[in-house]
Design a protein that fits this description.
By secondary structure, the chain is of the alpha/beta class. Helices cover about 50% and strands about 15% of the residues.
Protein backbone atom coordinates (compact mmCIF):
# COMPACT_ATOMS: atom_id res chain seq x y z
CA UNK A 1 0.00 0.00 0.00
CA UNK A 2 2.96 2.36 0.41
CA UNK A 3 4.82 4.34 -2.27
CA UNK A 4 8.31 5.89 -2.24
CA UNK A 5 7.32 9.30 -3.66
CA UNK A 6 4.32 11.60 -3.84
CA UNK A 7 3.04 13.37 -6.92
CA UNK A 8 2.42 17.10 -7.22
CA UNK A 9 -1.33 16.53 -6.97
CA UNK A 10 -3.58 13.95 -5.36
CA UNK A 11 -3.77 12.47 -1.89
CA UNK A 12 -1.06 11.21 0.45
CA UNK A 13 -1.38 9.76 3.94
CA UNK A 14 0.91 9.54 6.95
CA UNK A 15 0.25 7.09 9.77
CA UNK A 16 2.10 8.04 12.93
CA UNK A 17 2.41 5.25 15.50
CA UNK A 18 3.55 7.07 18.61
CA UNK A 19 4.04 6.17 22.24
CA UNK A 20 0.76 7.71 23.29
CA UNK A 21 -1.37 7.98 20.16
CA UNK A 22 -1.83 6.36 16.77
CA UNK A 23 -2.87 8.89 14.14
CA UNK A 24 -3.86 8.91 10.48
CA UNK A 25 -3.74 12.12 8.47
CA UNK A 26 -4.72 12.23 4.81
CA UNK A 27 -3.48 15.29 2.93
CA UNK A 28 -4.48 16.81 -0.37
CA UNK A 29 -1.23 17.63 -2.14
CA UNK A 30 -1.10 20.74 -4.34
CA UNK A 31 2.54 21.31 -5.24
CA UNK A 32 4.20 21.78 -1.85
CA UNK A 33 0.91 22.67 -0.14
CA UNK A 34 -0.33 19.93 2.20
CA UNK A 35 -3.95 20.36 3.29
CA UNK A 36 -5.32 17.82 5.82
CA UNK A 37 -8.63 16.34 4.66
CA UNK A 38 -8.94 13.49 7.17
CA UNK A 39 -7.45 13.39 10.65
CA UNK A 40 -8.13 10.51 13.06
CA UNK A 41 -6.42 9.70 16.34
CA UNK A 42 -6.64 6.89 18.87
CA UNK A 43 -5.00 7.30 22.28
CA UNK A 44 -3.65 3.75 22.30
CA UNK A 45 -0.92 4.23 24.94
CA UNK A 46 1.58 1.83 23.38
CA UNK A 47 4.37 3.21 25.55
CA UNK A 48 2.47 3.03 28.84
CA UNK A 49 4.75 1.36 31.42
CA UNK A 50 7.54 0.98 28.80
CA UNK A 51 10.10 2.50 31.18
CA UNK A 52 9.22 -0.08 33.82
CA UNK A 53 8.64 -3.22 31.71
CA UNK A 54 10.71 -2.60 28.57
CA UNK A 55 7.73 -3.85 26.53
CA UNK A 56 4.75 -2.36 24.76
CA UNK A 57 1.51 -2.20 26.68
CA UNK A 58 -0.64 -5.27 25.79
CA UNK A 59 -3.78 -3.13 25.93
CA UNK A 60 -2.01 -0.50 23.83
CA UNK A 61 -1.02 -3.09 21.24
CA UNK A 62 -4.60 -4.31 20.94
CA UNK A 63 -5.89 -0.76 20.61
CA UNK A 64 -3.21 0.20 18.08
CA UNK A 65 -3.81 -2.88 15.89
CA UNK A 66 -7.54 -2.18 15.85
CA UNK A 67 -6.91 1.45 14.87
CA UNK A 68 -4.44 0.49 12.15
CA UNK A 69 -6.90 -1.99 10.65
CA UNK A 70 -9.47 0.79 10.46
CA UNK A 71 -6.94 3.19 8.93
CA UNK A 72 -5.95 0.65 6.29
CA UNK A 73 -9.61 0.07 5.41
CA UNK A 74 -10.27 3.83 5.15
CA UNK A 75 -7.30 4.34 2.87
CA UNK A 76 -8.32 1.42 0.68
CA UNK A 77 -11.87 2.78 0.39
CA UNK A 78 -10.60 6.29 -0.45
CA UNK A 79 -8.15 4.95 -3.01
CA UNK A 80 -5.12 6.55 -1.34
CA UNK A 81 -2.00 4.84 -2.65
CA UNK A 82 0.75 7.09 -1.29
CA UNK A 83 0.81 5.89 2.31
CA UNK A 84 3.70 6.41 4.73
CA UNK A 85 3.42 4.60 8.09
CA UNK A 86 6.07 5.52 10.66
CA UNK A 87 6.68 4.46 14.26
CA UNK A 88 8.59 6.40 16.89
CA UNK A 89 10.04 5.94 20.37
CA UNK A 90 7.83 3.22 21.86
CA UNK A 91 8.23 0.77 18.98
CA UNK A 92 11.87 1.75 18.62
CA UNK A 93 12.75 1.13 22.27
CA UNK A 94 10.53 -1.80 23.21
CA UNK A 95 11.88 -5.35 23.33
CA UNK A 96 8.84 -6.49 21.36
CA UNK A 97 8.85 -3.57 18.91
CA UNK A 98 10.00 -5.73 15.99
CA UNK A 99 7.31 -8.31 16.74
CA UNK A 100 4.72 -5.53 16.82
CA UNK A 101 5.83 -4.22 13.41
CA UNK A 102 5.64 -7.76 11.99
CA UNK A 103 2.13 -8.18 13.36
CA UNK A 104 1.08 -4.85 11.84
CA UNK A 105 2.31 -6.03 8.45
CA UNK A 106 0.58 -9.39 8.73
CA UNK A 107 -2.78 -8.01 9.87
CA UNK A 108 -2.99 -4.69 7.99
CA UNK A 109 -0.51 -4.80 5.11
CA UNK A 110 1.18 -1.64 6.45
CA UNK A 111 4.99 -1.59 6.48
CA UNK A 112 6.08 0.42 9.51
CA UNK A 113 9.18 2.54 9.10
CA UNK A 114 10.66 2.58 12.61
CA UNK A 115 12.47 5.89 12.96
CA UNK A 116 15.69 6.36 14.88
CA UNK A 117 15.81 9.22 17.35
CA UNK A 118 18.01 11.20 14.95
CA UNK A 119 15.62 10.59 12.05
CA UNK A 120 12.67 11.63 14.19
CA UNK A 121 14.40 14.90 15.11
CA UNK A 122 15.42 15.56 11.49
CA UNK A 123 11.93 14.95 10.11
CA UNK A 124 10.34 17.11 12.80
CA UNK A 125 12.70 19.97 11.91
CA UNK A 126 11.93 19.45 8.22
CA UNK A 127 8.22 19.62 9.00
CA UNK A 128 8.66 22.81 11.03
CA UNK A 129 10.49 24.35 8.08
CA UNK A 130 7.44 23.59 5.93
CA UNK A 131 5.39 25.86 8.18
CA UNK A 132 8.14 28.37 8.99
CA UNK A 133 10.84 28.34 6.27
CA UNK A 134 12.78 31.18 7.88
CA UNK A 135 12.83 29.54 11.31
CA UNK A 136 16.08 29.76 13.27
CA UNK A 137 16.52 28.20 16.65
CA UNK A 138 15.83 24.79 18.13
CA UNK A 139 13.00 22.40 17.33
CA UNK A 140 11.72 20.21 20.14
CA UNK A 141 9.29 17.37 19.43
CA UNK A 142 7.74 15.93 22.58
CA UNK A 143 6.10 12.55 22.15
CA UNK A 144 4.68 10.19 24.71
CA UNK A 145 8.04 8.58 25.54
CA UNK A 146 10.77 10.82 24.17
CA UNK A 147 11.91 14.36 23.42
CA UNK A 148 13.81 15.06 20.20
CA UNK A 149 15.89 18.23 19.89
CA UNK A 150 17.56 19.61 16.76
CA UNK A 151 18.83 22.98 15.61
CA UNK A 152 17.05 24.55 12.63
CA UNK A 153 18.28 27.25 10.28
CA UNK A 154 21.86 26.98 11.50
CA UNK A 155 23.41 24.24 9.38
CA UNK A 156 23.21 20.49 9.66
CA UNK A 157 22.70 18.83 13.02
CA UNK A 158 22.28 15.16 13.86
CA UNK A 159 19.72 15.84 16.53
CA UNK A 160 19.34 14.38 20.01
CA UNK A 161 16.79 12.20 21.72
CA UNK A 162 16.02 11.95 25.43
CA UNK A 163 13.66 9.69 27.35
CA UNK A 164 11.66 12.63 28.65
CA UNK A 165 8.17 11.98 27.33
CA UNK A 166 5.35 12.11 29.91
CA UNK A 167 4.94 8.32 29.83
CA UNK A 168 8.65 7.88 30.59
CA UNK A 169 8.56 10.37 33.48
CA UNK A 170 5.30 9.31 35.11
CA UNK A 171 5.95 7.16 38.18
CA UNK A 172 3.23 7.34 40.80
CA UNK A 173 1.78 10.72 41.77
CA UNK A 174 3.12 13.79 39.99
CA UNK A 175 5.96 15.32 42.00
CA UNK A 176 7.10 18.65 40.57
CA UNK A 177 10.44 18.76 42.39
CA UNK A 178 11.37 15.18 41.40
CA UNK A 179 10.36 15.61 37.76
CA UNK A 180 12.06 19.02 37.44
CA UNK A 181 15.32 17.70 38.86
CA UNK A 182 15.23 14.61 36.62
CA UNK A 183 14.54 16.62 33.46
CA UNK A 184 17.13 19.29 34.30
CA UNK A 185 19.77 16.64 34.96
CA UNK A 186 19.05 14.94 31.65
CA UNK A 187 19.06 18.17 29.62
CA UNK A 188 22.53 19.07 30.91
CA UNK A 189 23.78 16.48 28.40
CA UNK A 190 22.28 18.39 25.46
CA UNK A 191 24.69 20.01 23.03
CA UNK A 192 21.83 21.56 21.05
CA UNK A 193 20.59 23.58 24.03
CA UNK A 194 24.05 25.01 24.65
CA UNK A 195 23.86 26.94 21.35
CA UNK A 196 21.92 29.76 23.10
CA UNK A 197 19.40 30.62 20.35
CA UNK A 198 16.44 32.96 20.90
CA UNK A 199 13.57 30.83 19.58
CA UNK A 200 12.28 27.40 20.52
CA UNK A 201 9.84 25.71 18.11
CA UNK A 202 7.56 23.37 20.02
CA UNK A 203 6.04 20.32 18.32
CA UNK A 204 3.75 17.68 19.81
CA UNK A 205 0.20 17.25 21.02
CA UNK A 206 0.93 17.89 24.70
CA UNK A 207 2.65 21.19 23.99
CA UNK A 208 -0.16 22.20 21.64
CA UNK A 209 -2.59 21.57 24.51
CA UNK A 210 -0.49 23.90 26.68
CA UNK A 211 -0.65 26.45 23.88
CA UNK A 212 -4.45 26.24 23.87
CA UNK A 213 -4.46 26.85 27.61
CA UNK A 214 -2.22 29.90 27.10
CA UNK A 215 -4.62 31.23 24.44
CA UNK A 216 -7.50 30.86 26.92
CA UNK A 217 -5.59 32.42 29.85
CA UNK A 218 -4.52 35.45 27.83
CA UNK A 219 -7.78 35.76 25.90
CA UNK A 220 -5.66 35.83 22.76
CA UNK A 221 -7.76 37.10 19.82
CA UNK A 222 -6.83 34.27 17.45
CA UNK A 223 -7.32 30.65 18.48
CA UNK A 224 -5.00 29.26 15.80
CA UNK A 225 -2.22 27.12 17.24
CA UNK A 226 0.18 27.32 14.32
CA UNK A 227 2.74 30.03 15.02
CA UNK A 228 1.15 30.95 18.35
CA UNK A 229 3.94 32.73 20.19
CA UNK A 230 4.73 32.87 23.89
CA UNK A 231 7.43 34.93 25.55
CA UNK A 232 9.69 33.38 28.15
CA UNK A 233 7.60 34.93 30.93
CA UNK A 234 4.33 33.72 29.38
CA UNK A 235 5.67 30.17 29.08
CA UNK A 236 6.74 30.08 32.71
CA UNK A 237 3.35 31.45 33.78
CA UNK A 238 1.27 28.89 31.87
CA UNK A 239 3.56 26.07 33.03
CA UNK A 240 3.06 27.18 36.62
CA UNK A 241 -0.72 27.16 36.11
CA UNK A 242 -0.76 23.71 34.46
CA UNK A 243 1.45 21.97 37.01
CA UNK A 244 -0.67 23.21 39.92
CA UNK A 245 -4.02 22.12 38.51
CA UNK A 246 -5.82 18.92 39.41
CA UNK A 247 -6.97 16.63 36.62
CA UNK A 248 -10.53 17.90 37.02
CA UNK A 249 -9.38 21.53 36.92
CA UNK A 250 -7.34 20.92 33.76
CA UNK A 251 -10.37 19.39 32.09
CA UNK A 252 -12.41 22.50 32.94
CA UNK A 253 -9.64 24.88 31.89
CA UNK A 254 -9.38 23.67 28.32
CA UNK A 255 -11.56 21.04 26.66
CA UNK A 256 -8.75 19.55 24.58
CA UNK A 257 -6.63 19.09 27.72
CA UNK A 258 -9.09 16.54 29.11
CA UNK A 259 -7.57 13.63 27.18
CA UNK A 260 -4.08 14.61 28.31
CA UNK A 261 -4.88 15.70 31.87
CA UNK A 262 -2.68 13.01 33.44
CA UNK A 263 0.36 13.69 31.24
CA UNK A 264 0.09 17.46 30.80
CA UNK A 265 1.93 18.44 34.03
CA UNK A 266 4.93 16.39 32.88
CA UNK A 267 4.88 18.03 29.45
CA UNK A 268 4.70 21.43 31.15
CA UNK A 269 7.76 20.71 33.29
CA UNK A 270 9.75 19.54 30.25
CA UNK A 271 8.86 22.77 28.42
CA UNK A 272 9.87 24.82 31.46
CA UNK A 273 13.23 23.06 31.82
CA UNK A 274 13.96 23.30 28.08
CA UNK A 275 13.31 27.05 28.28
CA UNK A 276 15.64 27.40 31.24
CA UNK A 277 18.40 25.17 29.84
CA UNK A 278 18.36 26.85 26.43
CA UNK A 279 17.70 30.35 27.78
CA UNK A 280 15.13 30.88 25.05
CA UNK A 281 13.29 34.19 24.81
CA UNK A 282 10.35 32.90 22.79
CA UNK A 283 8.41 29.71 22.14
CA UNK A 284 6.68 29.30 18.77
CA UNK A 285 4.13 26.51 18.48
CA UNK A 286 4.22 24.59 15.21
CA UNK A 287 1.26 22.67 13.84
CA UNK A 288 3.74 21.25 11.33
CA UNK A 289 6.10 18.54 12.46
CA UNK A 290 7.04 14.92 11.91
CA UNK A 291 4.16 14.00 9.60
CA UNK A 292 4.71 16.98 7.31
CA UNK A 293 8.44 16.23 7.33
CA UNK A 294 7.73 12.69 6.13
CA UNK A 295 5.90 14.15 3.12
CA UNK A 296 8.30 17.01 2.47
CA UNK A 297 11.31 14.70 2.09
CA UNK A 298 9.47 12.98 -0.78
CA UNK A 299 8.81 16.14 -2.79
CA UNK A 300 10.89 17.12 -5.79
CA UNK A 301 13.31 20.09 -5.78
CA UNK A 302 11.22 22.13 -8.24
CA UNK A 303 8.17 21.87 -5.99
CA UNK A 304 10.19 22.85 -2.92
CA UNK A 305 11.33 26.09 -4.58
CA UNK A 306 7.81 27.50 -4.23
CA UNK A 307 7.23 29.60 -1.15
CA UNK A 308 4.92 27.64 1.20
CA UNK A 309 2.61 30.62 1.84
CA UNK A 310 2.12 31.19 -1.89
CA UNK A 311 1.58 27.45 -2.41
CA UNK A 312 -1.02 27.31 0.37
CA UNK A 313 -2.84 30.39 -0.97
CA UNK A 314 -2.90 28.93 -4.48
CA UNK A 315 -4.23 25.63 -3.13
CA UNK A 316 -7.00 27.38 -1.20
CA UNK A 317 -7.89 29.56 -4.19
CA UNK A 318 -7.92 26.55 -6.49
CA UNK A 319 -10.63 24.91 -4.42
CA UNK A 320 -12.84 28.02 -4.55
CA UNK A 321 -12.04 29.77 -7.81
CA UNK A 322 -12.09 28.61 -11.42
CA UNK A 323 -9.43 31.08 -12.55
CA UNK A 324 -6.16 30.12 -10.87
CA UNK A 325 -4.24 32.25 -13.38
CA UNK A 326 -5.84 35.49 -12.23
CA UNK A 327 -4.07 35.61 -8.85
CA UNK A 328 -0.49 35.68 -10.16
CA UNK A 329 -1.54 38.17 -12.87
CA UNK A 330 -3.16 40.43 -10.26
CA UNK A 331 -0.04 40.25 -8.08
CA UNK A 332 2.16 41.44 -10.95
CA UNK A 333 -0.35 44.16 -11.91
CA UNK A 334 -0.63 45.78 -8.47
CA UNK A 335 3.10 45.70 -7.65
CA UNK A 336 3.88 49.12 -9.24
CA UNK A 337 1.26 50.65 -6.93
CA UNK A 338 3.45 49.81 -3.93
CA UNK A 339 6.78 50.96 -5.35
CA UNK A 340 7.01 53.74 -2.76
CA UNK A 341 5.08 52.11 0.07
CA UNK A 342 6.82 51.82 3.41
CA UNK A 343 7.32 48.13 4.26
CA UNK A 344 5.08 47.20 7.17
CA UNK A 345 6.60 43.71 7.44
CA UNK A 346 10.34 42.99 7.35
CA UNK A 347 12.38 41.65 4.49
CA UNK A 348 10.44 39.94 1.72
CA UNK A 349 7.38 39.29 3.90
CA UNK A 350 5.39 42.35 2.77
CA UNK A 351 5.65 41.39 -0.89
CA UNK A 352 4.88 37.74 -0.14
CA UNK A 353 1.73 38.79 1.70
CA UNK A 354 0.67 40.88 -1.30
CA UNK A 355 1.21 37.83 -3.50
CA UNK A 356 -0.87 35.64 -1.21
CA UNK A 357 -3.63 38.26 -1.04
CA UNK A 358 -3.74 38.51 -4.83
CA UNK A 359 -4.23 34.76 -5.10
CA UNK A 360 -7.09 34.91 -2.60
CA UNK A 361 -8.77 37.92 -4.23
CA UNK A 362 -11.23 35.77 -6.21
CA UNK A 363 -12.03 33.25 -3.50
CA UNK A 364 -15.16 35.08 -2.31
CA UNK A 365 -16.70 35.23 -5.77
CA UNK A 366 -19.14 32.31 -5.31
CA UNK A 367 -20.42 33.63 -1.96
CA UNK A 368 -23.57 35.70 -1.51
CA UNK A 369 -22.68 39.39 -1.00
CA UNK A 370 -24.64 39.51 2.27
CA UNK A 371 -22.35 36.91 3.88
CA UNK A 372 -19.16 37.46 1.92
CA UNK A 373 -17.40 39.91 4.24
CA UNK A 374 -17.71 37.90 7.45
CA UNK A 375 -17.11 34.55 5.78
CA UNK A 376 -14.02 35.71 3.92
CA UNK A 377 -12.47 37.42 6.94
CA UNK A 378 -12.88 34.28 9.08
CA UNK A 379 -11.83 31.94 6.27
CA UNK A 380 -8.53 33.70 5.64
CA UNK A 381 -7.89 34.29 9.34
CA UNK A 382 -8.21 30.58 10.15
CA UNK A 383 -7.34 28.89 6.85
CA UNK A 384 -4.71 26.10 6.81
CA UNK A 385 -2.00 28.44 5.53
CA UNK A 386 1.68 27.71 6.02
CA UNK A 387 4.55 30.05 6.83
CA UNK A 388 2.47 32.83 8.35
CA UNK A 389 2.42 34.49 11.77
CA UNK A 390 -0.71 35.58 13.63
CA UNK A 391 -0.11 39.24 12.76
CA UNK A 392 0.34 38.29 9.11
CA UNK A 393 -2.88 36.27 9.19
CA UNK A 394 -4.75 39.28 10.52
CA UNK A 395 -3.19 41.49 7.84
CA UNK A 396 -4.12 39.07 5.07
CA UNK A 397 -7.67 38.65 6.37
CA UNK A 398 -8.10 42.43 6.64
CA UNK A 399 -6.76 42.95 3.10
CA UNK A 400 -9.25 40.44 1.69
CA UNK A 401 -12.00 42.11 3.72
CA UNK A 402 -11.08 45.48 2.17
CA UNK A 403 -11.03 43.88 -1.25
CA UNK A 404 -14.85 44.01 -0.94
CA UNK A 405 -15.52 47.09 1.23
CA UNK A 406 -14.08 50.31 2.67
CA UNK A 407 -15.46 49.61 6.14
CA UNK A 408 -13.42 48.13 8.94
CA UNK A 409 -13.90 44.46 9.88
CA UNK A 410 -16.62 43.84 12.44
CA UNK A 411 -14.08 41.73 14.41
CA UNK A 412 -12.59 45.05 15.56
CA UNK A 413 -11.29 44.04 18.99
CA UNK A 414 -9.09 41.14 17.91
CA UNK A 415 -8.12 42.91 14.70
CA UNK A 416 -6.78 45.96 16.53
CA UNK A 417 -4.88 43.83 19.03
CA UNK A 418 -3.05 41.92 16.32
CA UNK A 419 -2.18 44.82 13.99
CA UNK A 420 -0.67 48.24 14.48
CA UNK A 421 -2.37 51.28 12.95
CA UNK A 422 0.26 51.30 10.17
CA UNK A 423 -0.50 47.70 9.28
CA UNK A 424 -4.24 48.31 9.38
CA UNK A 425 -3.81 51.18 6.91
CA UNK A 426 -1.54 49.06 4.70
CA UNK A 427 -4.12 46.25 4.66
CA UNK A 428 -6.82 48.73 3.61
CA UNK A 429 -4.58 50.01 0.80
CA UNK A 430 -3.81 46.48 -0.39
CA UNK A 431 -7.49 45.58 -0.34
CA UNK A 432 -8.33 48.71 -2.37
CA UNK A 433 -5.68 47.77 -4.94
CA UNK A 434 -7.07 44.23 -5.23
CA UNK A 435 -10.60 45.60 -5.60
CA UNK A 436 -9.54 47.96 -8.38
CA UNK A 437 -7.81 45.22 -10.35
CA UNK A 438 -10.62 42.72 -9.87
CA UNK A 439 -13.47 45.10 -10.75
CA UNK A 440 -11.62 46.66 -13.68
CA UNK A 441 -10.98 43.30 -15.35
CA UNK A 442 -13.95 41.25 -14.21
CA UNK A 443 -11.33 38.99 -12.59
CA UNK A 444 -9.88 38.10 -15.99
CA UNK A 445 -6.12 38.14 -16.50
CA UNK A 446 -6.25 38.88 -20.25
CA UNK A 447 -8.45 41.97 -19.74
CA UNK A 448 -6.27 43.06 -16.82
CA UNK A 449 -3.32 43.02 -19.21
CA UNK A 450 -4.89 45.82 -21.25
CA UNK A 451 -4.16 48.25 -18.39
CA UNK A 452 -1.02 49.51 -16.69
CA UNK A 453 -0.90 51.26 -13.35
CA UNK A 454 1.86 52.97 -11.47
CA UNK A 455 2.93 55.91 -9.33
CA UNK A 456 3.98 59.05 -11.20
CA UNK A 457 4.88 61.97 -8.99
CA UNK A 458 2.08 62.32 -6.45
CA UNK A 459 -0.47 60.48 -8.59
CA UNK A 460 -1.62 56.92 -9.11
CA UNK A 461 -1.97 56.73 -12.88
CA UNK A 462 -4.10 54.19 -14.76
CA UNK A 463 -2.99 53.88 -18.41
CA UNK A 464 -4.89 52.15 -21.20
CA UNK A 465 -5.43 52.24 -24.94
CA UNK A 466 -8.44 53.81 -26.62
CA UNK A 467 -9.75 50.33 -27.41
CA UNK A 468 -10.15 49.58 -23.70
CA UNK A 469 -11.89 52.84 -22.76
CA UNK A 470 -15.31 51.16 -22.60
CA UNK A 471 -14.05 49.05 -19.69
CA UNK A 472 -13.37 52.13 -17.55
CA UNK A 473 -16.76 52.66 -15.90
CA UNK A 474 -17.79 55.09 -13.19
CA UNK A 475 -17.40 52.25 -10.69
CA UNK A 476 -13.84 51.66 -11.86
CA UNK A 477 -13.05 55.37 -11.48
CA UNK A 478 -14.39 55.30 -7.91
CA UNK A 479 -12.22 52.27 -7.19
CA UNK A 480 -9.21 54.13 -8.61
CA UNK A 481 -9.93 57.19 -6.46
CA UNK A 482 -10.23 55.03 -3.34
CA UNK A 483 -7.02 53.09 -4.05
CA UNK A 484 -5.10 56.30 -4.69
CA UNK A 485 -6.41 57.89 -1.47
CA UNK A 486 -5.47 54.78 0.53
CA UNK A 487 -1.93 55.15 -0.80
CA UNK A 488 -1.83 58.90 -0.06
CA UNK A 489 -1.98 59.84 -3.76
CA UNK A 490 -4.29 61.52 -6.23
CA UNK A 491 -5.85 59.57 -9.12
CA UNK A 492 -5.33 60.06 -12.84
CA UNK A 493 -6.18 58.22 -16.05
CA UNK A 494 -4.22 58.47 -19.28
CA UNK A 495 -5.19 57.11 -22.68
CA UNK A 496 -2.11 55.92 -24.52
Amino acid sequence: MSAPHISDSGDAAVIDVGSNSVRLVVYQIDGRAMTPTLNEKVMAGLGRNLARTGSLSPEGVASAIKALKRFAALLEAKGVRSVFPVATAAVREAHDGVAFAERVLAETGLVLRVLSGADEARLSALGVSAGAPDAEGVVGDLGGSSLELIAIGAGEDLGETFQLGPLALARGEFDYDRVSAEVARCLKQSSVLKARMNDFYAVGGAWRAIGRIDIALRNHPLGVLHHHEMTRAEVLKVVDVVRKQSKRSLEKLEEAAAKRAETLPYAAVVLEQVMLAGRFERVVLSAFGLREGVLLERMGPEVLKIDPLIAAAEALAGRWSRARGFGPALEAWIEPMFARAEPVFPGKRYRLLRGAAARLADVGGPLHPDQRLEVMFDLVLRAPLAAISHAERAFLAAAIHHRYTKSQPRHANGYVRLLSEERQAAAAALGAALRLGADLSGRNESLLGAFKIGVEGDALVLRYGAGAAHLVTDTVLRRLDHAAAALGLSAQTKVC
